[in-house]
Task: structure prediction
Amino acid sequence: MGKIETLQTWGRALLDFAYPPHCAVCEADIEAAELLCGSCWAEIVTRRSHPQTEDGSRAFEQVVSLGPFTGALQQAIYALKFRNQVRLGRALGERMGQCLAEQLAPLDCLLPVPLHPARQRERGFNQSAEIAAGLGAVLGVPVCHGVVRRRRNTRQQALLSAEERRANLLGAFAPMAALPASVRIGIVDDVWTTGETMIACAQAVESDRLWAVVLARSDAGDLLT
Ligand SMILES: [Zn+2]
Result:
């Protein structure tokens, strides 16, 4: 353990002493490393209802999600994105990898949906990259960066009509590097809603061996980007 890691460990221990850690979903007391309490984790991994679904766009061979965008999974994703619970991204990715290892086995690499650099600076991290890191570690699959970039900082999709959303996303992603045609790529994001963001990203990847891999699937409109 290096000096910085040692300091971080001590710093965290001190913080845990001063502010005992709570579940990011239900606020129950927990061990620091768990991030969520046992019952919230149990709800997340047992409420799988969308193991595999067609997206109708033919952009993806499969759309795979850990569960519906409801309950503890929804709250955990809100905590990740809007309450800076960065470590939850990796932890959720790891749980997804453990639950769906068999189903995700055909993937050769993972490609997190990039954020626009300005948005990433504002948030401090890319939640999709955190999820992909956890998934990749469990599945033993590499995470590719620098394959596509986000060239436009798309506005909050929730406020737009379907037509405006599509126009907003047109050309939002640009290719940077090509992967071999034989590689099956899992494009990773936190939530699938209309799928338009992921389909726009898929178009920039230009491969016909793409899967969409998301923590949660929602049919209630694009609430978050
Ligand atoms: Zn909890």
User: Anything to note?
Assistant: The radius of gyration is 18 Å.
